[in-house]
Design brief:
Strand order of the largest sheet: 1-5-4-2-3
Strand content: 15-25%
Distance between the termini: 51 Å
Helix content: 40-55%
Number of helices: 6
Number of strands: 5
Radius of gyration: 16 Å
């Protein structure tokens, strides 16, 4: 019966690791990299924080589509032809959003590591 505990722990660890690791096929950039790319008109900039977080502080050029609305709004509001740069507060929600966008067929997705917390 003791081996069941090990299986449960192993599954839990796999779940946590999958949440934290970057998504395959998603480019990871720092906020310093973002500053160099911000003026590129061929990219779409999406902030997946809540509207309250976005109103409190945001980066000019980013459009607010909260994570819980992204699945419904992505196809109608975003172009699959342009790269999408995704940011949130810490990088966790934007990583989740990046996975969602890849599943929806968006080819060029970039996640900002560290999110707004790393923006200086």
């Amino acid at each position: 019966m003791e081996y069941v505990n090990y299986i449960v722990i192993a599954l839990f660890l796999v779940f946590i690791i999958q949440r934290v690791l970057p998504t395959k096929g998603v480019r990871q950039i720092t906020t310093t990299d973002l500053k160099n790319e911000l003026n590129d008109k061929n990219k779409q900039y999406i902030d997946v924080r809540t509207s309250g977080e976005f109103k409190a502080s945001n980066i000019r050029g980013f459009k607010n589509i909260p994570l819980h609305q992204l699945a419904q709004q992505a196809v109608s509001e975003l172009s699959k032809e342009k790269e999408i740069v995704v940011i949130c507060q810490s990088g966790m929600r934007s990583n989740k959003a990046s996975k969602l966008l890849k599943k929806q067929g968006f080819k060029q997705v970039t996640n900002v590591k560290g999110g707004m917390s790393a923006w200086g």
